[in-house]
Amino acid sequence: MKRWLGKAETALGNHSDRLNAINIFPVADGDTGTNLYLTVRAAARSLQDAAPTPAQVQAPARTPTPAQVPVPARTPGPRQAPDPAQNDVGAVLAKAGEAAMEQARGNSGTLFSVFLCAAAEPLAGHTRLTANSLAAALNRAQIRAWSALSDPVPGTMLSVMEAAARAAAAVDAGQNGNDSNYALGLALDAAVEAALEAVIRTEGQLDALQAAHVVDAGGVGMLLILDCLRSAVLGVELQSELLDGLHGYDLQDPHIHTDMPDDDGVEVMCTISLSPLDAAMLRQRLDELGDSVIMSQVGPSPDSDGRYRWRVHVHVMDSGPALETISSLGEPAEVSVSELAIPRDPNPVEAEAGSHDGR
Description:
Distance between the termini: 25 Å
Strand order of the largest sheet: 2-3-1-4
Shape: globular
Strand content: 5-15%
Helix content: 40-55%
Number of domains: 2
Mean pLDDT: 84
């Protein structure tokens, strides 16, 4: 799982400019690639500081004791038990998902964070992936991502997630409970192939994409992430020809959004602790104020007052009413407000705070 997220960070960094170039729906502000990269980077780096298990720690060399010097008997000290979370696929992904959610950028980053957090749930307690657990994780993730949006739209990364999940489930059903690595490989191959087909279909599913002759940027990003999972689990190279022929993705193609009028309004994001009832109320009020509303729970457990942490995302014409509405129900943290019309830096390594998209 650490290798997967590390590969995804590198791949999205390499492809961010092209993803930005075809970013057109629902806001043509050219930063889907940057937002996905920064969000995946947060997930990957949250695992870099994880303490290794004792088996991974090499004991320091001992200085030989001269033969003539008697060595007193040593009382063995308590042995450090391995941290179970280090070998729990679900626990590792949950940690990465929460880090991604807290630092999510734009629609694309927020939806990937939802995907990661949800995928972790069926994997809790598992020390390895199987075709069955992969299918369960992908299915939970795509359902949660669809439900996080108030107005989900086919032809986006949601459709790519769904296609991958259905393909993995079909392979798992055909394997009759086979938990071998061979069956897992078949499921991963099918998931990536189905994701590619879903990306190709996005162009015909959304009028804006069809008019511009491009595929969906978030969908391509999700395809890259899934191919990185296949590569990391199976120990194979990324499929270099995977994106060949995708409309708008050739290096010489222009940035499609540069000739389009700027989008008005701002993107507001924050984290806030709310009861389930207040969360439902906030979603309803934000739906009335703006669009691209995403609300997803951060972490599985409530606090002592029964409130859960939520990541909130919305596009509005004016941030004032939105922030006032949010603040009326709780105390928002990590608040960011970004102008949708600001030109974006296509270099994700240099892009810092305020890089958000309409995806």
